C-alpha cells in the first residue's frame, strides 16, 4: 500500500456533547516523554491523580481510580464489580445512558427492574420509591447528567431510598464531574464513574471511578469472580494501591494528560469552575431565546454544560450542522433516540465554557438560520454580565 501522508489535524470549535476543547498545557502533558508503567515517577503521578480525583468528586473516603478505557468502561466497571448473577438492580432509564446501564447490568447476570422517565424530564424520588415498594435491590443506579437529553437529575433523597432498599447507589457522572457540584460523600454515592472528555477537558481514553468504603467491601465480599478480568477492581486496585502488582500496561501519557487536566480544575477552584459553567449557560440560553430557539428542558432541570435545542420546523438539522462544520469549523451534536432529527445538542464544557464559544455559536446559528445575530449577541452579553 501507499504510505499515507502525516496527519494534520483540522482545528475545530468543539461544542457538541464531547469531546470538549483540550487546553494547551494538557496537550503538552500528553507529549511528555513516555516512561514505564512501574517507574517510581509514574507511580507518583498515579497517586496524585487518585488524590485529585477524590477531591474533585468530593470523596472523603473510599478510593478513586482512572480506568484505562473510556467512560463506558467506567460504567461497566462499576456494574460488573458490584453485581453478581441473580442480584437485583433498579435502574432509572431517562435517556440513552440509563438504557445502557440497564443493558450492562443484564449482561452481568442481574435481574433488572427499570424505572422509565420521559426523555427530557427528571424523576421524583417519591415516584421511584413507590415503584420499588416492598422490594430489595443490590444497587440503585441513575444518570446525574443525561447527555442525550440535557437534564440534570437532582440526587437528593436517593441515598435514603437506597438504604431502605438495602442497595448501593451508583451514579453516572460522565458529563457532570467538573462542571456541576458532585459530592460523593455528602450525597451518599457508593459508585461514581465519569469520563475525561467532557468537563475535565482531557481527550477521551480514561474513565475516573470512585467507590465508597461500602462498595469496596461489596467487591471484597463477592462469592464469584468478576465477569471481566480486565475490569476486575480487586486486580486493578492491586496495581493502583500499595502492592503495585502488574495488571496491565497503563496508558502513561493519557494519565499525564489527566493529571494536568485535574490540576487545572483545582487551580481554577471548583466553585469558580461551577459558576463559570452556569454563567456561560445563562448567556447561551438568553441568546437562543433571542434567536427564537427553544431549549427542550425546563430551566430548573437544565444541564448547564449541555443544552438540547428544538430544531425549528422545516429545518434539516443534519444539513445545518454540516454547514456549521464546513463554514465555521463549529461542531454541534445531533439528537439521539426519540430526539434524533429534531434536536441539537450544544456543549459548553470545561475549556469550552467561555464567552468566546457562546458568542461564536450564537453568531453562526444566526447566520445559517438567517436570524438577528445582533439581538442574540446583545441578549447573551446582558446575561453574561449578571
The oligomeric status of these chains comes to single chain
Could you give the distance between the termini?
Answer: 59 Å
Q: What is the CATH-assigned architecture of the largest domain?
A: 3-Layer(aba) Sandwich
CATH topology of the largest domain: the name is Aspartate Aminotransferase, domain 2
* Most strands sheet: 7 strands, mixed
- The counted number of beta strands is 14
Structural class comes to alpha/beta
Mean of residue pLDDT values: 97
At the fourth level of CATH, the homologous superfamily of the largest domain is: Type I PLP-dependent aspartate aminotransferase-like (Major domain)
Order of helices and strands: EHHEHEHEHEEEHEEEHHHHEHEEEHH
Tell me the strand percentage band. 5-15%
Q: Given this structure, which CATH class of the largest domain is correct?
A: Alpha Beta
Distinct helical segment count? 13
Shape: globular
Radius of gyration from the alpha-carbon trace, in angstroms? 21 Å
Strand order of the largest sheet: 2-10-9-8-5-3-4
Structure keywords:
alpha/beta, single chain, Aspartate Aminotransferase, domain 2, Aspartate Aminotransferase, domain 1, 14% strand, alanine-glyoxylate transaminase activity, 386 residues
Explain what you see:
The chain folds into two domains: 24-266, Type I PLP-dependent aspartate aminotransferase-like (Major domain) (Aspartate Aminotransferase, domain 2); 271-385, Aspartate Aminotransferase, domain 1 (Alpha-Beta Complex), CATH 3.90.1150. The strands form four sheets. A seven-stranded mixed β-sheet has the order 2-10-9-8-5-3-4, with helices on both faces. It has a three-stranded antiparallel β-sheet with strand order 11-14-13, with helices on one face. The chain is globular and about 65 Å long. It is α/β, with parallel strands linked by helices. The model has no long low-confidence stretch (mean pLDDT 97). The protein is 40% helix and 14% strand. The termini are far apart. Its EC number is 2.-.-.-.
Amino acid at each position: 500500500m501507499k504510505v499515507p501522508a502525516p496527519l494534520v489535524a483540522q482545528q475545530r470549535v468543539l461544542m457538541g456533547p464531547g469531546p470538549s476543547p483540550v487546553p494547551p498545557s494538557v496537550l503538552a502533558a500528553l507529549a511528555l516523554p513516555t516512561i514505564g508503567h512501574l517507574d517510581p515517577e509514574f507511580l507518583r503521578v498515579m497517586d496524585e491523580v487518585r488524590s485529585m480525583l477524590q477531591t474533585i468528586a468530593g470523596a472523603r473516603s473510599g478510593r478513586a481510580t482512572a480506568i484505562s478505557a473510556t467512560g463506558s468502561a467506567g460504567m461497566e466497571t462499576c456494574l460488573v464489580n458490584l453485581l453478581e448473577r441473580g442480584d437485583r438492580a433498579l435502574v432509572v432509564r431517562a435517556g440513552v445512558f440509563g438504557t445502557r446501564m440497564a443493558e450492562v447490568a443484564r449482561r452481568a447476570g442481574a435481574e433488572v427492574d427499570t424505572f422509565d422517565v420521559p426523555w427530557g424530564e427528571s424523576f421524583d424520588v417519591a415516584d421511584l420509591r413507590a415503584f420499588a415498594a416492598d422490594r430489595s435491590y443490590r444497587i440503585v443506579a441513575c444518570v446525574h447528567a443525561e447527555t442525550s437529553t440535557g437534564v440534570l437529575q437532582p440526587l437528593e433523597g436517593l441515598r435514603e431510598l437506597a438504604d431502605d432498599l438495602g442497595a448501593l447507589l451508583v451514579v453516572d457522572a460522565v458529563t457532570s464531574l467538573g462542571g456541576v457540584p458532585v459530592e460523593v460523600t455528602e450525597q451518599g454515592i457508593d459508585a461514581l464513574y465519569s469520563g475525561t472528555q467532557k468537563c475535565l477537558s482531557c481527550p477521551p481514553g480514561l474513565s475516573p471511578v470512585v467507590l465508597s468504603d461500602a462498595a469496596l467491601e461489596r467487591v471484597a465480599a463477592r462469592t464469584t469472580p468478576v465477569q471481566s478480568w480486565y475490569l476486575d477492581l480487586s486486580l486493578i486496585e492491586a496495581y493502583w494501591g500499595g502492592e503495585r502488582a502488574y495488571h496491565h500496561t497503563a496508558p502513561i501519557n493519557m494519565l499525564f494528560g489527566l493529571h494536568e487536566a485535574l490540576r487545572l480544575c483545582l487551580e481554577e477552584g471548583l466553585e469558580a469552575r461551577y459558576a463559570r459553567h452556569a454563567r456561560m449557560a445563562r448567556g447561551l440560553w438568553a441568546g437562543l431565546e433571542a434567536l427564537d430557539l427553544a431549549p427542550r428542558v425546563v430551566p430548573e432541570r437544565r444541564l448547564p454544560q449541555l443544552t438540547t435545542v428544538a430544531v425549528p420546523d422545516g429545518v434539516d438539522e443534519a444539513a445545518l450542522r454540516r454547514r456549521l462544520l464546513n463554514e465555521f469549523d463549529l461542531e454541534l451534536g445531533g439528537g439521539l433516540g426519540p430526539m434524533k432529527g429534531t434536536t441539537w445538542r450544544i456543549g459548553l464544557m470545561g475549556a469550552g465554557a467561555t464567552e468566546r464559544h457562546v458568542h461564536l455559536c450564537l453568531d453562526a446559528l444566526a447566520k445559517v438560520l438567517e436570524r438577528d445575530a445582533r439581538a442574540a449577541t446583545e441578549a447573551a452579553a446582558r446575561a453574561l454580565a449578571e
